Amino acid sequence: MLRSTMKEGQTMTQSGIDWREVLFDLRRLDLMPKDVARELRGVISEPAVRAYTEEVCEPSHVRGELILDLWCEKTGKRRIDAPRRPIALRSNPLARVVRA
Distance between CA atoms of 82 and 55, rounded to whole angstroms? Predict the structure, then answer.
């Protein structure tokens, strides 16, 4: 049986891509949201790129992969070097235990 080692109210952190910083890196290279949308051949719209920059929402996995590919291409950096930020994960005291 698997059990959570986290106690109620305890937090655990992971890191996620900091989309705002990724897009600001592209902006520093003179790629504005309309340019990012154009580089991605319209798969991601300009308003969506702006929403990611303003942290209104995050891109889906597929869209995030496209943005990261563009970031790597334009900055010459590796994916592992992409800006990250901590994400707090909280244990949920109401979550049910699943037994195998």
Answer: 17
DSSP H or E segment with residue 92: none
Mean pLDDT over each residue of the chain, to the nearest integer: 85
Sequence letter at residue 93: P
Tokens describing residue 46: 């300009």
The reported pTM is 0.74
CA neighbor of 31 nearest in space, from 18, 58, 50: 50
Burial class for 95, CB neighbours closer than 10 Å (0-12, 13-18, 19+):
exposed
Q: Which two tokens stand for residue 82?
A: 């992409």
Evaluate if residue 54 carries a pLDDT over 80: yes
- Rounded-to-integer distance, Cα 67 and Cα 41, Å: 12
Tokens read off for 23? 């897009």
